[in-house]
């Protein structure tokens, strides 16, 4: 594979570009992909350019879009177009055009079926008008493709007063997208993902939405309040620009993904280009210039190890706006790896946690290579001492301050949360936490066909006498020693909590009443061997055991296990009693 790219600023540059490529191109190749990214928003000259390229290379696949700025060989070009020729020796490139927003889900299913039949499919690239249509129904189908198939893409973007379009030879779409498949027995495609934003402040909850792209309320307040209250950003003409450096992070599983707001409605609702869902938690985020540049350098080290023959870059417009003149520090590392080209996007398409979706705030590097990589490593020099401009240097120092205070706040919140759920004396779960876990566990276990769940409730025998005779300090020691015994006798996944006073409760998932009775007897003996009282004296405990019955409510179950404990206390104490199973 070989890649050649040229900057075009005037109509005369097109002929020069074509001649230069012809002079450098190999004599034989199986496929030619010509991509055009332009800052122009005038349809006529763009279509004339694609027509001229198509006439010169009739067999070529031609695809492109409008953008704010174009990228070529680690640099940014303004008020220009970049034409790139990707020449494949043994691989094939195919283009499909989609222009009906009403049939995206069905189109996605059909495209998936066709893609499954493509032999040696290595990648799918998408260029679309993501601002004008919801592409997610189409992308959902691509998630089922083999995980080794790289899926990437971006949205047309312009800051000028005109629609951002995608185009191919003789056709321009204000609402639609192009899907390009790359296949070949020798074709290798590698993707790296760079970020650079960090979470800020506490978590919020999305409490009301319209569809998947309009957030009406956050924490039951108009969504815009998080920007008004915490950042002083008010709705207005430049709201999307003002919030560019402060996206929101949405929690998906154990990770966060970024979402940039693209507008604010009069009612305070926020508009997003990518999907969000009611009930999800989110946080504000902020840009870290040093992190962005560091991520880019790390991504280039990873890409250098792949040894690409050509690199396609898709960068969120936020990177360009945030870093401004220092954006060259983010792009420059690719120069010594392979020829590169790309554009600034309005949303990035990428596979995250197995799902293909639209993301924000990313810089994607897509490397292509035909054949095996050379054995000799490609040295990459990353300058970690890069000097930022004064404006970003100030931002970096503020970022450091915010990072440190955010980390301290998170640590404090975690400790407060732990304390709120933990019994102060015994350091096991308190009554509230234990009851919440028990209620949920009983509800699940009472369902038909559910796995067994049993519970032990124990009470320290004659505990009032311990306090009266020896004092509360000794009583506290008895409670602490009991908690230590309980912890030492249980499995990972069991729950032990202080139910109140001298009562403790143990939740045993996947345990029958027979299993639970054995555990209770083992704990009973272990407690009897603890000599926590003065003069080396021991103490005992009584146990009630019950298993959750199908269809049983929490109150019904609690009465049974409490009754079993009552029977143990009335049977001479220091014993185990099992509650009869409730009849269906």
Structural summary, described in words:
The protein is of the alpha+beta class and 584 residues long. Strands 14, 15, 16, 17, 18, 19, 20 and 21 form an eight-stranded antiparallel beta sheet that branches. The protein is elongated, with a radius of gyration of 32 Å. It has four domains: 275 residues, no CATH class; 90 residues, Thrombin, subunit H; 33 residues; 148 residues, Reverse transcriptase/Diguanylate cyclase domain (Alpha-Beta Plaits, 2-Layer Sandwich).
List its salient traits.
584 residues, alpha+beta, Thrombin, subunit H, 4 domains, 8-stranded antiparallel sheet, 6-stranded mixed sheet, 15 helices, 33% helix, 32% strand
Give the biggest beta sheet.
8 strands, antiparallel
Helix vs. strand class: alpha+beta
Number of helices, counting only DSSP H or I runs of 4 residues or more: 15
Measured as a percent range, the helix fraction is: 25-40%
Beta-strand content bin? 25-35%
Q: Give the number of domains.
A: 4
Rg, nearest Å: 32 Å
């Amino acid at each position: 594979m070989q890649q050649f790219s040229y900057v075009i600023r005037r109509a005369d540059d097109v002929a020069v570009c074509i001649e230069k490529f012809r002079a450098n191109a190999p004599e034989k190749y199986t496929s030619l992909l010509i991509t055009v990214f332009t800052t122009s928003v005038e349809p006529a000259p763009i279509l004339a350019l694609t027509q001229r390229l198509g006439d010169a290379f009739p067999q070529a696949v031609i695809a492109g879009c409008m953008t704010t700025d174009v990228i070529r060989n680690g640099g940014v070009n303004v008020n220009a177009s970049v034409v790139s020729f990707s020449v494949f020796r043994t691989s094939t490139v195919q283009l499909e055009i989609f222009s009906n927003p009403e049939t995206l889900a069905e189109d996605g299913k059909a495209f998936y079926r066709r893609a499954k039949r493509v032999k040696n499919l290595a990648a799918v690239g998408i260029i679309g008008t993501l601002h004008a249509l919801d592409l997610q129904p189409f992308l959902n189908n691509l998630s089922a493709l083999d995980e080794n198939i790289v899926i990437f893409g971006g949205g047309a973007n312009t800051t000028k007063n005109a629609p951002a379009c995608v185009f191919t030879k003789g056709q321009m779409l204000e609402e639609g997208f192009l899907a390009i498949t790359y296949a070949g027995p020798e074709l290798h495609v590698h993707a790296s993902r760079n970020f650079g934003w960090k979470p800020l402040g506490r978590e919020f909850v999305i409490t009301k939405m319209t569809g998947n792209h309009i957030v009406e309320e956050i924490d039951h307040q108009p969504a815009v309040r998080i920007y008004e209250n915490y950042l002083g950003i008010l709705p207005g003409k430049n709201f999307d620009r003002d919030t560019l450096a402060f996206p929101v992070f949405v929690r998906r599983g154990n990770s966060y993904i970024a979402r940039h707001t693209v507008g604010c409605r009069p009612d305070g609702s926020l508009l997003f280009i990518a999907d969000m869902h009611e009930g999800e938690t989110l946080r504000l985020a902020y840009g870290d210039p040093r992190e962005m540049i560091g991520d880019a350098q790390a991504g280039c080290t990873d890409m250098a190890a792949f040894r690409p023959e050509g690199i396609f870059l898709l960068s969120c417009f936020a990177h360009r706006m945030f870093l401004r003149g220092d954006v060259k520090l983010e792009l420059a590392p690719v120069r010594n790896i392979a020829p590169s080209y790309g554009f600034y996007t309005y949303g990035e398409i990428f596979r995250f946690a197995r799902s293909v979706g639209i993301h924000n705030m990313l810089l994607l590097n897509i490397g292509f290579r035909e054949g095996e990589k050379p054995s000799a490593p490609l040295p990459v020099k990353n300058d970690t001492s890069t000097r930022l401009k004064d404006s970003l240097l100030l931002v970096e120092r503020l970022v450091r301050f915010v990072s440190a205070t955010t980390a301290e706040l998170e640590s404090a919140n975690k400790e407060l949360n732990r304390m709120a759920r933990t019994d102060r004396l015994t350091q096991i779960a308190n009554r509230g936490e234990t009851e919440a876990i028990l209620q949920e566990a009983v509800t699940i276990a009472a369902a038909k066909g559910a796995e067994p769940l049993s519970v032990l409730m124990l009470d320290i025998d004659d505990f009032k006498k311990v306090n009266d005779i020896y004092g509360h300090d000794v009583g506290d020691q008895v409670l602490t020693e009991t908690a230590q015994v309980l912890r030492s006798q249980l499995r990972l996944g069991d729950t032990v909590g202080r139910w109140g006073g001298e009562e403790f409760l143990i939740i045993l998932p996947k345990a029958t009443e027979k299993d639970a009775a054995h555990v209770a007897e083992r704990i009973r003996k272990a407690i009897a061997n603890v000599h926590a009282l003065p003069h080396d004296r021991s103490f005992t405990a009584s146990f009630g055991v019950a298993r959750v019955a199908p269809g049983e409510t929490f109150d019904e179950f609690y009465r049974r296990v409490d009754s079993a404990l009552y029977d143990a206390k009335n049977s001479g104490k220091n014993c185990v009693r099992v509650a009869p199973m409730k009849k269906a």
